[in-house]
Amino acid sequence: MNTRERILDAAAEILRTRGVVHATTKEIARATGVSEPTLYKHFGDKEQLLLAVLRERLPGLSRVDLEPGRGSVEDNLTGLAHAALDFYQQSIPMLGALLADPQRMAAHRVAMDRLGGGPDKAVTVVAAYLRAEQALGRIAAGANPHAVASLLIGACFHEAFLRYYAHGPGASAADHTTARDLTRTLAAPLL
Description:
The protein has helices at residues 3-22, 25-32, 36-42, 46-56, 73-95, 102-115, 120-135, 145-167, 176-187. The chain is mainly alpha-helical. It has 2 domains: 1-57, Arc Repressor Mutant, subunit A; 59-191, Tetracycline Repressor, domain 2. Helix 1 (3-22) packs antiparallel against helix 2 (25-32) and helix 5 packs across helix 9 (176-187). It is elongated, with a radius of gyration of 18 Å. It starts with a helix and ends with a helix.
């Protein structure tokens, strides 16, 4: 395993247990067995490292193939919802403390904008997929893709938060049935 991969593995574990606000690059470098300058050779700053962990170590929307016109819309959205549920359940403990620190949150927002990341991207991706399906006539012409995307992603976030709230970091992952039920409730009027 190369150095970059070792850094990502160590960072993912530390961010899960300490959160982005309390985890330090020094701690991550030490856990990896590299110097801080070596860590910064691979990741320009802590935000780049966080974004790499979110993209490469957590299940997420980037791993879902949303190709318009392929498969059923319901199945595609169910796969997406399942990935979103997993992603949010694992990322909530990493990012939750940002909400309590307005200065850190503002700096994080600026960094995510610069790096092309952030929580708004999920809704953007899903809405674009739904617009493409709408153009193909596979969902109702009167549907609002952005509203549907917001509702689905919001429901996934809320479900993941409730699981984490009720059971902590050891909460079981949402199953496929939960993802399917959320999707069916939203997709039925679209189809």
